[in-house]
Design brief:
elongated; alpha/beta; five-stranded parallel β-sheet; Rossmann fold; 13 helices; six-stranded mixed β-sheet; 434 Repressor (Amino-terminal Domain)
Length: 378
């Protein structure tokens, strides 16, 4: 329906039909190489750069370049530097499809995380991505949601994608099921201790980290030290509880169950947990939070009750996530180095793919001192 006052549209003039434009001819996605000009921009001006050109520029064989790109070459640092310099100068871009066909691989690695949106797992995924990218592999991330059925479905999805290997961050599936799966392809499992022919596992020393955190608060004169526990389905939560108890026992402090509150590693559970502690009127002067996210919630809960950190309550966290440096006050915490752990997990996978035993050095727990804990005023 035309609006009132709208101009009348003239009828179109009929014209003789024109020859339809057939469009440009279909050509190969890889243009023919032209004679490459000299100079650093030669590769970019010549079109697609081949692996042979990189090899010639670096003074090595094409097979050496291929092995360096796949992360399977045992070559000198000088050769590797020469190849990397040639790649930069020529603007070479490896073709992952062609490389996969040539080597019988998909050039992709499946990664089962639990919650992709988690700032904790996000750092691990960044480390995995960086290490795999350097070897020409693409990570495929899927979530298990701390649910056995979802995790099994995620693994089935990755297998259907014909990934070359799978990295599992924690998870709910049994060790036996992961071992069976590793019979068909290489696996790296982070957060557990499992052994198998094609399976490598590694775990952080959570117990020592928690002991360091609690000992620091004891060293500042605190004896009423509360604990925000993580989710009980996590093995690391139990280990951090043991580390807390180890420190108390070494200092001759009897554990008080009223000072321990169960959380689930989320900010909301930290807020709720500190509220329960305050309602119990336990008289705690310090708090060890089993992760930084719960510590963030605890800070809010204390602030709402008019309590200041660290003047009224000292807090130590665990993980050393990036936001912990910018909290008010900045959080004293145990560095979990999850980014580096992601790098190490990916490096272990690359070693398995080339048939070598992984040489992984897990980061050790380190107490990072900031401003959220202070000596108890006598």
């Amino acid at each position: 329906m035309r609006r009132a006052g709208a101009a009348k549209v003239a009828a179109p003039t009929l014209r003789a039909p024109r020859q339809r434009n057939p469009g440009p001819p279909i050509v190969s996605s890889r243009p023919p190489l032209k004679k490459a000009p000299s100079g650093r921009s030669a590769g970019r001006e010549a079109g697609a750069v081949t692996l042979d050109q990189v090899a010639a520029r670096a003074g090595v064989s094409p097979s050496t370049v291929s092995r360096i790109l796949n992360g399977t070459a045992a070559v000198s640092g000088a050769k590797k530097d020469a190849v990397e310099a040639a790649i930069r100068e020529l603007g070479f871009r490896p073709n992952p499809v062609a490389r996969g066909l040539a080597g019988g691989r998909s050039m992709s690695i499946g990664v089962v995380t639990q919650i992709i949106s988690s700032p904790f797992y996000g750092e691990a995924l960044s480390g995995i991505e960086r290490e795999l990218d350097g070897a020409g592999y693409v990570p495929l991330f899927v979530s298990g949601h701390w649910n056995e059925a979802d995790e099994r479905k995620a693994l089935e999805t990755l297998l259907a994608r014909r990934v070359d290997g799978i990295i599992v961050l924690a998870g709910r599936l049994s060790d036996a099921e992961l071992l069976r799966l590793s019979e068909s392809l290489p696996m790296v499992v982070v957060g557990r201790q499992i052994t198998g022919p094609q399976l490598f596992s590694c775990s952080f020393d959570h117990r020592t980290g928690a002991r360091l955190a609690t000992e620091h608060l004891i060293g500042l004169g605190h004896r009423r030290i509360a604990l925000l526990l993580g989710d009980g389905i996590h093995e690391d939560s139990s280990d951090r509880h043991r580390g807390y108890l180890d420190a108390l026992a070494a200092a001759g402090i009897a554990p008080d169950p009223q000072l321990v509150v169960q959380g689930d590693y989320t900010e909301a559970s930290g807020l709720e947990g500190v509220q329960r502690l305050l309602e119990r009127d336990t008289g705690f002067t310090a708090l060890f939070s089993s992760n930084d996210q719960m510590a963030i919630g605890a800070l809010l809960g204390l602030s709402r009750r008019g309590l200041r950190v660290p003047d009224d309550v000292s807090i130590v966290g665990f993980d050393d996530l990036v936001p912990s440096r910018y909290m008010l006050p900045p959080l004293t915490t145990v560095r979990h180095a999850i980014y580096e752990i992601g790098v190490q997990a990916a490096a272990a996978m690359l070693a398995l793919l080339r048939g070598a035993p992984p040489q992984v050095r897990m980061p050790v727990p380190e107490l990072v001192l900031r401003e959220s804990a202070r000596r108890l005023a006598r």
